[in-house]
Structures are given as C-alpha cells and as structure tokens.
Amino acid sequence: MKLKVSKAQAFSLDANKIAADKSISHRCAIFSLLSDKSSFVRNYLEGEDTLNTLQIAQKLGLSVQKEQEGLYLIPPAKICEPNAILDCGNAGTAIRLYLGLLSAQKGIFVLSGDEYLNKRPMKRVTEPLRSIGAQIIGREDANFAPLVVLGNERLAKFNYTSKIPSAQVKSAMILSALFAKEDSIYREIELSRDHSEKILKGMGAKIESKILKNAVEIKIESLKGKKLDPLNIEIPADPSSAFFFALAIAITPNAQGILRNVLLNKTRIEAFKILEQMGVKIQYIITSETYERIGDIEMTAPSSLQAVNVHQKIAWLIDEIPALAIAMACANGTSRVQNAKELRVKETDRIYAVVKNLQSCGIEAYELEDGFEIVGGELQKACVSSFGDHRIAMSFAIAGLVCGMEIENAEYINISFPNFLEILASITKIERD
Q1: Active-site residue numbers?
Q2: Cβ proximity of 318 and 340 under 8 Å
C-alpha cells in the first residue's frame, strides 16, 4: 500500500482511541499461561504482532473467549506441545519471550516469523538460555529463526549479568527462572522496560529489584510448581503509539492536543521528556496507579523546536527514536543520537532507514555507527520507503504533516497501530493506493 499524506494546518486533537500498549498486550497473552484460573483482559491490542502472540498461546492450549467487555483467557492445566510451527510474524517480543517460557516446558516447539523477523539476531536470548540448560537449535548457532526448542523442565538456576539493557532478554530470562530448580539473579547495566516484573509481581510472583552502583539486580524466586494468580487488567494506551501524535503536535505550528489514558511508566515516556527539552509544553495528568501509572498528556506546540543531543537512557526511548528524528529535522540547529546501536537490529536497520529517508526529504543527515546526526532544515515532500518497518512508516507519515509525503509499503503500520490512519485522517487528508 502506498500512503499519501497532505500538509496539515493548525489543529486541536483529542485522542482517546490510541492503540493499546503493545508491550503489555504481548505479556498478558503469554503470562496468562502461568495461572490455573481464567484471566480477564480489557482493551487487548488487536494489531498483527499481538494477535500472533495470542494465537501462539492458543496453540499452546490457551482458550480465548471474546466478550464485549474484553477477553477471557482460560489456561490449560499444562502447556501443550503444538502440532504446528509457532508463527510470530514480525514480533520480536513474542519470539524472545516464548523462547524463555518454552525452554522450561516439556515438548518440542518451533518458533519462526516473517522475512524480517528471521533476519533479527536471537543469540542475545538463546545464548544465556543455553547457558542454564536450555536446548535451542537454529541457523548460525541459534542466532536466527526458525528456532527449535527442546523443552527442559529442569533448567538450572542462574546468576547472570546482561551486557545490554533489553526488556526482551530480561523477560525471557525471568520466565525461565520461574521454572528453574532454585532462585535466580538477573542483572542489567541500566533499567530497561519493567512491565514483566510489575505484571508478574501483581500475579503473585516473588520478584525483587534493587538498584546497585553500576547495575539493576533482580532476584526471581522459583515457582516450584505453583501457579500464579490470574490477570484482571485494562491495558492503557501505548506511549510509543501516542508519541506519533505528540510528534504531530510538536512539528505543526499552533497545534495543541490531549492524548488520553496513556501508560506513564517512567521507562516509557523518556521520548516525551526529550520533546520538552526541545521546547514543547507538556503536562502529565495522572488518572490511575493500580498496576501501572496511567494518565492524560496535554501538549502545546512551541514557536520553534531546538536541537538536542540524545545519548542517555536509550533503552527507555529506543522505539521512539525514528519519530524523534522527524522533530530533529524540524528543529533549529544540529541534533545527534548516540549509544543507540540497537537500532541497527530492529525490524530494519533504523539508523540507515531514518537517514536515507531524511536525505530524500532534503535534510542534511549522517549515519554514525551508533546513531545519527541531523541538521535541522525544511522538510520537502518525497516518496520514501517503510523498509518493512511500522515505526519508519508512521514517523514519515507524520512528517507529511509539514510538507506532504508518500510512503511505500505503509501496510506495516497495522503491526502495532491498527487505527493510526483513522486518527491521522482527523488531522489532514490522506489517500491509500
């Protein structure tokens, strides 16, 4: 699908239908398998990635009853050995978390995905799992899917320090630790997204986190055959999805808006803090703090955006960096992103994709090994590629509000934000070919 976005005039946006949080939706489907009672989940994200995660859970024995109010997730007595390949589609979260869970279950499990997922490195997860007894076979020594998991119900305890702050690696290891013989310890050099810890603790798992001088240490107590409590949760709006419309407000003169019912976990709103540094006026209005902090985000566009250097807390804003690049392209001065080499191994090489597309739009932009440098200027209309990446597609669709834009292969937007175009169409004219 080719998406054509027209230049926008000043607007006032009240967004109350932003896509549900993708990270939490993935985890609700997977974690429901850890209980012996039915979970109830409201506002589950019906994007391609999260639906793939839910369908895999069903192949493992989960029953799903869809009601008007939400989903009843009814777990099996024991995770079943499937008679088909577990297709993760484009979902890196799904394949990595399921690797952790299924490594500790009896059976043979084959995990695969689409052409993009099967190019993404998996050794960051398979290597630590194999070090505690997991049996995982795959291309290039289990670095690329398809991956075959030969489940082992007697995984060893571990005391592991991760070299990268990754919520996916951490979550996979926590899931395996719940089924280990004894208690385990996981460390990361800085705090990554902590939804897994929060949700699992809410389900009764004994997980303790503490901040050390140079690391975050997490102690995970083995379940020793016990089951967790079921979930009863309403999933808030995804801050990573909401950020696209925060960007829309930031780059459109005289625009203002409110983004409602957004997850305000501190590890998820760092990109909004960067926009504040660039001059955007933002207020956070807390409405709930049951499982996670949730609230509304009120925003007003500045008269102009200022350049910024981003090199800290990268794990907290890695998904939003492509969208931040658009703000940087519209800012006064030269902006720089560093310590973000992880962008090279996302759905596509996002460093290359961002720089290539910005250059097509007449912006001076340069690749760095671990980020990029962008000289703010005047965006020009162009026809750019999504590179098969939903976040690249949405970032440049929002850029179109400034100058008009055409995005090739924009269908990948449906992976994480099915109603993105509906909200965008309330701001400006769009066409789909």
Answers
A1: 319
A2: yes
